[in-house]
Fold this sequence. Notes:
This protein is mainly alpha-helical. It has 21 helices and seven strands. Strand 6 and strand 7 form a beta hairpin. Helix 11 packs across helix 16. The longest helix is centred in the middle third of the chain and has 25 residues.
Amino acid sequence: MKPTLRLILGDQLNIQHSWFKSPASAAVYLMMEVREEATYARHHIQKVIAFFVAMREFAAEIERKGFKVIYLTLDDTQNLHSLSSNIEHLLNSGTYGAFEYQLPDEYRVDRALSDLTAHLSVPTRVVDSEHFLTERDSLSRIFRGRKRYVMEHFYREVRKRYDILLEEGEPIGGKWNYDAENRNRLPDSVVPPAPLTFSRDVSEIVDVLERAKIPTIGTLSPKNFPWPVTRQEALETLEYFCKHCLLHFGTYQDAMHTAHRFLFHSRLSFSMNVKLLSPLEVIQRSIKEWQKQQRQITISQIEGFVRQIAGWREFMRAIYWSQMPEYKELNYFEHTRPLPGYFWNAKTKMNCVKHAVKQSLEEAYAHHIQRLMVTGNFTLLTGIEPAAVNEWYLGIYADALEWVQLPNTHGMSQFADGGILATKPYVSSGNYINKMSNYCSGCFYNQKARTGEKACPFNSLYWDFMRRNRARLETNPRIGMAYRTFDKLSPEEKKAIERQAAHYLETIEEL
Ligand code: FAD
Ligand code: DLZ
Ligand code: SF4
């Protein structure tokens, strides 16, 4: 009997999948580094390296366990450099009796594989990736008969389904959500732990990328690659988070600081997104730590962490699969401005944007509030075209895969979907950034000033955004308050703000 060819994509490194329960099955596993995937966005060099090293390690691991693997490296002369062409070529050889793949997470790849398998001469089977807590179509089921998709409702359903932080069906501590307690600035007295990093030598793969002329962004130190790329390293990162970061995770979840790039964040998104770790095991391990240290770790810390994974992460995926492909084309505010040059080199006088972009270029990482309330806030206030914003976010972060990047960027951050995902646009003046960070004290601009030579750009741009979009936003109950504040300004102040914003928009490249 001919063996089955089974595809493993770069983000399907799930050793706990039923495919790997026993090596006896007559299957050959196909993994490939292809130009198509390495260039569909201009990726951060650390992202491409993280994927390739993790893929190579995974292939080696399953081979050690006795599975047969075909691994096409980027410089393999047999490589046709697209997922579909390589699969088709192998299947045309007549060696294989069937083709199987796991549900891909990205719409683009899902389409490509369905188109390919529609005309294959061998039988095809698609199986689940056995990773997520919910199904692709969970949105329509969870929100049947409801008018709006609200994360909180989705999150509670997931908690009930998996019995997470519940006691006799009720949330432990009495509340489902402790977000209101998770909004503190980092005080000088609290020093976050240094992140757990690895120091793998990846020079050889860097050379391969250079020889293949794969265009990338950002920097790396080839002899000290920091990200976890094996299951063992991912598990160590999870342990480190539980032991050293969970204690303060919730409290300083929204804080930003020039000296602490990672604060108390877990740095687990890449590991989870490539499926080295399952979301359920991350949740269960962190809850175990909370149970062990209940005197120190409060419910608001653990709930804050669990909500990100059981709530936001799953909700984002559900939105993605219910709205694609039209979702990507939405442009609610009709924004068309190109992305300013400093998003690629961090050369700006705005200290907050400088820090968030510089860190992103150097680490392929920024935490949620840097992404949402600094860079995302700025691109929304200045009316950057959502497609350009998406392209930047899809490339720059090691954890960026479209199923999670797009709803976060297009929906949550840019409100380009007009409110399918979020209840309001996440915009703020410099006040919020000053409240949550130490960025403003070292800035060229004056956070307190709305107008004048060195006025913080976020201030006038915020009010101008509200003014420009009044017809679209005024009826939103979560925004109404801001219009009442705006209306109290004198006509002269309003005019001055409008002039200041117009000036900043005209000179956006010089900010
Ligand atoms: P922690 O703060 O330690 O949180 C723990 C885990 O919760 C994360 O690892 C992640 O798996 C999950 N999580 C937290 N927030 C979210 C969220 N909003 N959506 C989905 N999962 C979440 N996350 C990605 O994984 N890939 C992306 O491409 C991505 N793009 C984003 C773009 C924008 C504009 C914004 C605002 C957010 C984006 N996020 C993305 C969500 C979030 O910023 C990252 O998951 C988080 O910063 C990763 O760092 P961490 O692992 O240290 O997270
Ligand atoms: C992100 C990425 C990169 C950079 N390279 C590859 C690759 O060469 N081969 C591969 O199988 N996967 C890669 N990936 C991840 C894919 O883009 C991801 O598997 C799909 O988009 C499905 O979510
Ligand atoms: Fe950013 Fe304004 Fe603060 Fe400067 S003053 S760091 S531009 S918010």
